[in-house]
C-alpha cells in the first residue's frame, strides 16, 4: 500500500521559509516569504523566458493566505494594506503594472494569464469559513517589512473593521551556492 506521508515529509522539509501566522478572533493571515529560486522554478516549469524570470528574481515574494474565522463577511482590499520599511511606505506595483510590463517584453498572453493567476486579487470578499490567497510582489529589501492591514466586515462593509499589524516580515533570499 502506498503512503503519502513520506512524500509529504520530504516536500515539507524542502520549504525554505515557514509561514508566519497572524491570528485574531475574526481572521487568520498567513504570510510566507518565497525565495527567487522557488518562484523562478515555478515560472520556469511553465515556460517563462529567461529575461522575464530575471526581472522576477529581483523582487520580493510573499504568499498570503487569509481565513475568515468570523460569522460575517470579511472584505479584503489591497488598497487597505500598507507595507513599509523604517517608517517609509513601500510601493507595491499593482497587477496591471505587471501585465503591461510583460506585454511590453513580448510575453505571450497565456503566460501573462498564468502570472496574473498566481497573484492574490486586489480585492475579495470572504464568507464565513472561506480561505483564499495568492502572491504579492514587493520591491526587494534586506530590511524588515512592516505590514498594516485593514479588513472591512459585514454584509455591506458596515461592521467594525479588523486590523492586522506585523513588523517582522522579510524577503526570502536564496542561499549562496
Structure write-up:
The chain has 177 residues and is an alpha+beta fold. It has a single domain (19-169), classed as Immunoglobulin-like. Helices cover 27% and strands 36% of the residues. The protein is built from five helices and ten strands. The strands form two sheets. Strands 4, 5, 6, 7, 9 and 10 form a six-stranded antiparallel beta sheet that branches. Strands 1-2-3-8 form a four-stranded antiparallel beta sheet. The longest helix has 10 residues, at 5-14. It is globular, with a radius of gyration of 17 Å. The model is unreliable at 1-14 (pLDDT under 50).
Topology:
Layout: H1 5-14, E1 20-23, E2 27-34, H2 36-45, H3 50-56, E3 59-68, E4 74-77, E5 81-85, E6 88-89, H4 95-104, H5 109-118, E7 123-126, E8 131-139, E9 145-153, E10 162-169
Antiparallel strand pairs: 1-2, 2-3, 3-8, 4-7, 4-9, 5-6, 5-9, 9-10
Quaternary status: single chain
Radius of gyration: 17 Å
Number of domains: 1
SSE pattern: HEEHHEEEEHHEEEE
Number of helices: 5
- In total, how many beta strands? 10
The best one-word shape is globular
CATH architecture: Sandwich
Helix content: 25-40%
Largest sheet: 6 strands, antiparallel
CATH class: Mainly Beta
- Poorly predicted segments: 1-14
CA-to-CA gap between the ends?
Answer: 38 Å
| Chain-averaged pLDDT | 90
As a percent range, the share of strand residues is: 35-45%
CATH fold title: Immunoglobulin-like
User: What structural class results from the helix and strand content?
Assistant: alpha+beta
Amino acid at each position: 500500500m502506498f503512503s503519502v506521508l513520506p512524500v509529504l515529509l520530504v516536500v515539507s522539509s524542502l520549504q525554505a521559509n515557514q509561514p508566519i501566522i497572524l491570528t485574531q478572533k475574526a481572521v487568520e493571515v498567513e504570510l510566507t516569504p518565497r525565495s527567487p529560486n522557488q518562484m523562478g522554478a515555478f515560472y520556469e516549469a511553465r515556460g517563462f523566458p529567461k529575461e522575464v524570470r530575471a526581472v522576477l528574481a529581483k523582487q520580493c515574494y510573499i504568499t498570503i493566505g487569509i481565513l475568515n474565522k468570523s460569522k460575517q463577511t470579511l472584505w479584503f482590499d489591497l488598497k487597505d494594506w500598507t507595507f513599509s520599511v523604517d517608517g517609509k511606505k513601500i510601493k507595491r506595483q499593482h497587477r496591471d503594472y505587471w501585465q503591461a510590463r510583460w506585454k511590453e517584453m513580448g510575453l505571450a498572453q497565456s503566460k501573462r494569464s498564468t502570472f496574473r493567476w498566481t497573484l492574490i486579487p486586489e480585492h475579495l470578499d470572504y464568507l464565513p469559513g472561506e480561505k483564499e490567497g495568492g502572491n504579492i510582489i514587493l520591491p526587494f529589501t534586506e530590511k524588515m517589512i512592516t505590514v498594516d492591514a485593514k479588513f472591512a466586515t459585514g454584509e455591506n462593509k458596515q461592521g467594525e473593521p479588523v486590523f492586522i499589524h506585523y513588523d517582522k516580515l522579510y524577503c526570502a533570499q536564496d542561499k549562496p551556492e
